[in-house]
């Protein structure tokens, strides 16, 4: 990161804060709820809709499986037969290499 | 104006967690309550000359979010490095599935960091600790506890719990480090599981964290909560503070909320004192916490669902493992240089199921236009 004075950082942060503040006003207006904070707080009070959850529920579990496959670098969800490289590995394994 | 410690935390997020590169393209998603954090991070990225786009989102329910997200995402062929998604919300975690679907085509060149409890303390305390330091502490806890059969847990505040562990219950380790295709939940620093059995007395003298929006001061140091636990359930609770007592009544009144659904070990030593905000920052504090209500296991393993999850958090915790005379002191964990186990789950916060999309199976998503493929990295 380039050297920059704390005054310049302050100016930059204030400018971006003003930009993002304007974005929020525009987006909330377009969203069409008079008081978004009150609306969401009423929605997610105790006994209402959860504000967050600790675990995937039934349908989410499928998504987690997909992500785990992704982590494993899976090219497809499953395959029905060995492809060429797998056959080589199998051949090596049976020949004790 | 942002203070120096908070600004340092912003730099730590970018340097130590995200490991930002000049070639990265960053998408900042934020709710209105976190617009300052979105601005701080945007400014820090501008200083580094890293391309940044922003998407505002309404928390929990936002019919237009998917379209705004689609418009903000770069074309795949325009991407020179990684797509880095940074999201900031204070009270909520929103749109898990919509985001996962939208960025799946960028994998494996996509890194996602989602912050809940966004406030200055997230940066000035929780994010100033290196993820490697958190990981080494999580590994130390996992090495002792994952293979344990029995735990005895005490705290200076008076907690005395007996726990049994069953290997069929999965462990969660949130340490601020991403695995390919995964999502990092911030603040980081926790190990957790589901106790096969638990009984005794638990004194929560640090804070609570509930999955609802509340303006209530979450700190408990002046009026600790005592919960008596038998056979994995809260059978009695007490608190000297009438408003807090009423709040507990409201929570435990929810169906299944008296079940112990989580046994958690906070490991983020950057968090020392509780903050008033109902937050995950307090939950990451070194110490023991119990989550009542919704559990942290797959639906087929633990068979109940609960609308509420109420974490009651103690300051510190001493854990005796089996018959080992040397306990684990959660406030003084000796970091481990071992390898982190691969079987744990990283993510411990998800959005509630409010979106219309339904995952049909691991390959498809049922949309209003019919079944669409859910693309895995470079595949399908």
DSSP helix count of chain B? Answer: 8
Secondary-structure class of chain A: mainly alpha
Going across the major beta sheet of chain B, what is the strand order?
13-12-10-6-5-17-18
Helical region count of chain A? 4
Oligomeric description of these chains: heterodimer
What's the overall geometry of chain B? Answer: globular
Q: Which stretches of chain A are poorly predicted, pLDDT < 50 over at least 5 residues? A: 72-97
Q: H/E element string of chain B?
A: HEHEHEHEHHEEEEEEEEEHEHEEEEEEE
Distance between the termini of chain A: 51 Å
Question: Biggest β-sheet of chain B: count, sense, barrel?
Answer: 7 strands, antiparallel
Topology, element by element:
The complex is a heterodimer of chains A (97) and B (380).
Chain A: H1 6-31, H2 36-43, H3 58-71, H4 84-94
Chain B: H1 4-18, E1 25-30, H2 35-47, E2 51-56, H3 65-72, E3 83-88, H4 96-103, E4 110-115, H5 120-124, H6 131-145, E5 150-154, E6 160-164, E7 172-174, E8 183-186, E9 190-193, E10 197-204, E11 207-210, E12 225-230, E13 233-239, H7 242-252, E14 260-266, H8 280-283, E15 287-293, E16 309-313, E17 318-321, E18 328-329, E19 358-359, E20 364-367, E21 370-373
Parallel strand pairs in B: 1-2, 1-3, 3-4, 4-8
Antiparallel strand pairs in B: 5-6, 5-17, 6-10, 7-9, 9-14, 10-12, 11-16, 12-13, 14-15, 15-16, 17-18, 19-20, 20-21
Helix pairs in contact in B: 1-2
Describe this structure in words.
The complex is a heterodimer of chains A (97) and B (380). Chain A is 61% helix and 0% strand. Chain A is mainly alpha-helical and 97 residues long. Chain B has 2 domains: 4-126, 3-Layer(aba) Sandwich (Rossmann fold), CATH 3.40.50; 132-176 and 183-373, no CATH class. Chain B is built from 8 helices and 21 strands. In chain B, a hairpin with a 2-residue loop joins strand 20 (364-367) and strand 21 (370-373). The longest helix of chain B is centred in the N-terminal third of the chain and has 15 residues, at 4-18. Chain B is globular, with a radius of gyration of 21 Å. Chain B starts with a helix and ends in a 7-residue tail after the last strand. The relative contact order of chain B is 0.15. The interface between A and B is large, with 59 and 82 residues.
